[in-house]
Amino acid sequence: MEQTADSAIEGAREAAEDAAPADASDPYQRRRQTFPTLNEEQIARIAGYGQTADYGAGEVLFQRGDREADFFLVLEGGIDIIDMDAEGEEKVITTHGVHQFTGELDLFNRSKILVSGQTSGPSRLVRLDRQQFRRMSSTEQDIGELMMRAFILRRTAFLLHDEAAVTVIGEPNGRDTVRIRRFLARNGYPARLLEASSDDAAAYARECSMHVSTLPAVRTSDGRVYHNPSTAELADALGITVPLDPDHCYDLVVIGAGPSGLSAAVYAASEALDTIVIETEAPGGQAGTSSKIENYLGFPTGISGQALAGRAWIQAQKFGATFAIARAAETIKKEGRLIRITTQDGQSVCASAAIVASGATYRKLDLPGYEKFEGQGIHYAATALEAQLCQAQEVVVVGGGNSAGQAAVFLSRHASHVHVLVRSDGLAASMSDYLVSRIEQSSRITLHTETELTALSGRRMLEEVTWRNRTSGEQETKAIGNVFVMIGAVPNTEWLGDCLELDERGFVRTGAAVSPRGDEAGPFDTSEPGIFAVGDVRSGSVKRVASGVGEGSVCISAVHAYLQDSA
C-alpha cells in the first residue's frame, strides 16, 4: 500500500528530508517517517488517553496471531518487534526506542497481527487499548496522521522485505500458486515465494512430508502447512478475515468492496454508522486489478487500482468499518425490519440496512495467458485514455453488440486501423443500424465475420495476436498490442435469489419504477425497502470507477433517511 500525504508540497519536502543513497522507496531508508520520534507535547497529549506503567525486561506485550494488540508508547527503555524467519527462528526487526511507538495497520482491524513485541529491557510505557487508540487518533488529528503514515510504511516494509511473511511453495506460473499469491498481495499480506524446484523447497518437502502433488502449499512461521488451500481456507488460517457475530446487528452491511462499496463504507463509517463490508476476495473489485488508472480525479500521473483500493480500505477501517474478507454472500433476506446476509461458509450478518455493491464481471475470452495481459493490452472500455494508448496503432475489437460498435467507431479516430472480430456472419442482428453503417463506410475499420481470437503473446505487455476464420480455418497473426473485449458483462446477482427485482440481463433495478415508495424513491432504492444498490451491479449505471465512488457516497444519505424513518 502506498504512502499518503496532505499535499504535493509536503510530499516533496518529506522526500527531500529522507533522501538517502539507498533505495528511497524502501521505508527502512525513510526512518524519520517509518519510525518517528514524538516530542514532549505530543507525548503528553497521548498519555492522557491511556495508562502509564512500568514493565520488566522481556515482558511479552503482544504476539503474532493475536487479534487485539494494544498500542504502546515508549517513555523509557524500548520494545523489540520480533519476526520469525523462514527457518522458524526469532529475529528482531526493529526496536522502538524512547518516544517511539508500536503498531501498524492491524491496529485498525481485528485481523491476526503479524509480529510479536516484548520489552527490550526495563521499560516505562504508555498503553492504549483499541478503543482508546481510536479516540486518540481521531481527536489528535496531527498525531493520527503521523501514525497513519508510519503504519502504512511499516506494512510496505514488511511486503518489500518479506518480513512477517508466510512462505508459498509452488511453481511461479502455476495457476493456484498465482491465485494464492494474488490473494495475499491484494490483501497486503507479506509472502515469500519458494520455487518448487529449488533445494530449499526440497528441504521443506522432507520436513513437512510434502509431495509435488500437494503443491502449491503455504507454510507459516510456526511450521503449519496448508496444501493448496482455497481462498476462504487461507483467509481463515492466516486470520486475514474476522469472525462474524450472528447476534450483533450492524446499522449497515455493504456487500462488495469495489469502488462503490469502499466509498459507501468510508462515508457510512465516517458518519457514525456501524458498518460491515462483506467481500468475496479482496478490496478493489475489478478496479483493484488495474495496473494504472490515469483518468481518476486528483491523480494526474495515474494510480494503480490496488493502491487506490488500498487507501480506501485503510480509510474505511480508520473510521471504524469492519471488513469480512474472503466471505462470499450466498443469500439475503428480510427478517421483519432487519436484513440478514448468509455467507457461503454458513456464517451470517444482521443489519438494519444493506447496500448491494457486488459489481459485475466482464465476460472474458478463454485463451491461454489471457489473465497475464489484462491491464497490459486487454481492455474492457474504450475511452479517451485507451485511445491515447493506441494512437496510430492497429487494434482489435472483439464483439458484435452496440458497445463493440461504439468502441470501433470511436477508436477509428485515433488508431491507424481497427479490426472488428465477430463469431456470427454479420452485425445486423446484434448492432444498431447506424453503427453498422458507420463501420461499413469507414476505411479505417475492417469487419472480420465468423472469426475468433485464438492466441495472444508478448513478454510483459501484449505484442501479438492471432485470429482464425471459423469457416475456412484460415489464420492470421498480426503485431497488435491492444485488444478491446466487448462481449458483455455478467452481474454478480445470482446470490440475491428472488429478493430483488432484476432487469432482463440480471442487473438490479432501482428507482421510482421498482421502489414501493414510488415517486419518493431515490435513484438507489431497490424493490425491497432498506436495500439499496450502487455501482456496476445496478441496472443503468455507468461502469466507471469515478461513477461507482460517487454512487457509493451519495447512497449513504438515503441510508440515513431510511434508518431515521424506520427507527
Automatic annotation (TrEMBL):
Disordered, as annotated region: 1-29
Residue ranges of domain Cyclic nucleotide-binding in the record: 34-154
Name of the protein in its database record: Thioredoxin reductase
Pfam families per the UniProt record, alphabetical: cNMP_binding, Pyr_redox_2
Organism annotation: Parvularcula maris
GO molecular function: oxidoreductase activity
Gene3D superfamilies: FAD/NAD(P)-binding domain (3.50.50.60), Jelly Rolls (2.60.120.10)
CDD domains: CAP_ED
Entry-linked SUPFAM superfamilies: cAMP-binding domain-like, FAD/NAD(P)-binding domain
Signal peptide: none
Keyword terms: Flavoprotein, Oxidoreductase
InterPro entries membership: cNMP-bd_dom (IPR000595), cNMP-bd_dom_sf (IPR018490), FAD/NAD-bd_sf (IPR036188), FAD/NAD-binding_dom (IPR023753), Ferredoxin-NADP_redctase_2 (IPR050097), RmlC-like_jellyroll (IPR014710)
Keyword Flavoprotein set for record: yes
PANTHER family (UniProt xref): THIOREDOXIN REDUCTASE 1-RELATED-RELATED
